[in-house]
Amino acid sequence: MSYKADTHMHSIYSYDGQMKLEDMVERGMDLGLEYMAFTEHLEFGQINMNQFLNRYDLYKREVERLQELYPNITLLKGVEVSNPENYSEQMRVLKMLDLDYIIGSNHILPDDNSKREILLYYQRILGMVINCDIDAVGHLDYLRRRVDDSLLPNDMIGVIFKEMIRKNIALEINTSAVRRSGLDSFPSDEKLELYRSLGGNMVTYGSDAHRLYEIYDAIDEVSSKYDFNQGVFVKRKFLSLK
After folding, report:
1. pLDDT digits 0-9 by tens, 192-212
2. What stretches of the chain adopt beta strand conformation (E)?
3. For residue 130, which phi and psi values (nearest 5 degrees)?
């Protein structure tokens, strides 16, 4: 096992999660994991800050309770924020919480396969990277679930990567691409090679699990292909696991 962590998972504290936190921890223990990051969905278009803070208080207390029960695995409190570039005030509040890990993700998929729509998708990610206090970019080319983004020159992706590298924002390698779409990963092997060529090195791996059997799915296989500086975020600081 080359990477004993899963840094992208959704419990029942996410609107689409199917798992109880304790069941997830027990599954992680069975798999021999050393770190698990619960990255609950945060959709500011669907929930206001007070509602989120109430839910976060329950979530935080449960994670801390489970950490006492399972001291042999490190449990990390995280969120996956959808399009944080649109919610600057909410992100300032989020920064004050004792989170370990904040993923920023673009969940606004293109309406069609046109170059214009694909460019808009990546422009949103660039805006997120430039303007938001996040630790990692989640499933960068998630749009490949629906469209072929090869029409877009690598120049745009390169601009995103350069800004991420400048700001020490990690690149998440999301293995849900394997089970959901039969792809290599999000981002693709081609984009990962571009990231490396530009000097990018800091990565996390996440299964994007919503069900128990999806935890750590394909992470061992995918992480063994690369020699990046792989790690996790603890108290929003990158901890290398190499």
Report:
1. 999 999 999 999 999 999 999
2. 5-6, 35-42, 74-82, 101-105, 136-137, 170-174, 202-206, 229-234, 237-240
3. -70, -40
Residue with tokens 């609107």: 15
CATH pick for 5-240 out of 3.30.360.10, 3.40.50.1000, 3.20.20.140, 2.60.120.430: 3.20.20.140
- With H, G, I as helix, E, B as strand and everything else as coil, classify residue 39: strand
Tell me how far apart the alpha carbons of residues 66 and 128 are, in angstroms, rounded to a whole number: 33
Mind listing the pLDDT tens digit for each residue in 155-176? 999 999 999 999 999 999 999 9
Give the separation between CA 161 and CA 167, rounded to whole angstroms. Answer: 10
Q: pTM here?
A: 0.96
Residue with tokens 């007070």, as numbered in its chain: 50
- Smallest CA-to-CA distance from 98 within 141, 57, 69, 127 is with 57
